[in-house]
Specification:
Double Stranded RNA Binding Domain; two-stranded antiparallel sheet; about 10% strand; alpha+beta; 10 strands; single chain; about 160 residues; transcription
Length: about 160
C-alpha cells in the first residue's frame, strides 16, 4: 500500500516512512527509548526534564503538550461536545468518545504481542508492555530511582 502524501522536505518523508517500517532512529539520551519521529522524541524528553511550557491561564496547572492544555481549558468551560449515542456520557475530545464506545461494543483492538491481553486504548497497551520489557521511563529528578508508571513517580515525589 502506497500513500499519495506529498512532503515539503526529505526529513518529513523519512519520518513518515519510518512509521510504516517501524524503524526507530531517534533515541532518548536519558533512557535509551527509541522513536520513529524526532517530534515524538522531543515530546518524550520532557518526561525527564519536567518541562511544562503550556500554562493554564485560569489555574496553576501546566502541561508538556499544547493539546493537553487545550483539552484542560475545556474543563473550565464545561464544554463536552462529543455525546455517546449509547448512554448519557459526553466528552471533551472525539478520541475519548471513540475509546468510550469500545466499552459498549467490547472491542479491544490493541493486542499485546507477548500475552493474551488486549486493551481498548493504545496507551493502556503501551503501559502494559512495560511489564514485559522492564522499561522504567519515569525518573526522579531528586534521586536515582525510576518507575514504570507515572503514578509511582508521583507517589515517590511526595516523599521528597
Amino acid at each position: 500500500n502506497q500513500s499519495n502524501t506529498i512532503f515539503t522536505n526529505d526529513s518529513n518523508h523519512i519520518s513518515h516512512m519510518m512509521k510504516h517500517t517501524g524503524d526507530k532512529y531517534y533515541q532518548c539520551n536519558q533512557c535509551g527509548k527509541a522513536f520513529s519521529d524526532n517530534y515524538i522524541l522531543n515530546r518524550h524528553v520532557k518526561i525527564h526534564t519536567g518541562e511544562k511550557p503550556y500554562q493554564c491561564s485560569q489555574c496553576d496547572k501546566a502541561f508538556t503538550q499544547k493539546n493537553d492544555l487545550i483539552r484542560h481549558d475545556k474543563t473550565h468551560t464545561g464544554e463536552k461536545p462529543y455525546q455517546c449515542s449509547q448512554c448519557d456520557k459526553a466528552f471533551i475530545i472525539k478520541s475519548d468518545l471513540i475509546n468510550h464506545l469500545r466499552k459498549h461494543t467490547g472491542e479491544k483492538p490493541n493486542q499485546c504481542s507477548e500475552c493474551e491481553m488486549a486493551f481498548t486504548r493504545k496507551s493502556y497497551l503501551i503501559s502494559h508492555m512495560r511489564k514485559h520489557s522492564g522499561e522504567r521511563p519515569h525518573q526522579c529528578s531528586q534521586c536515582d530511582k525510576d518507575f514504570a508508571y507515572k503514578n509511582g513517580l508521583n507517589r515517590h515525589m511526595r516523599k521528597h
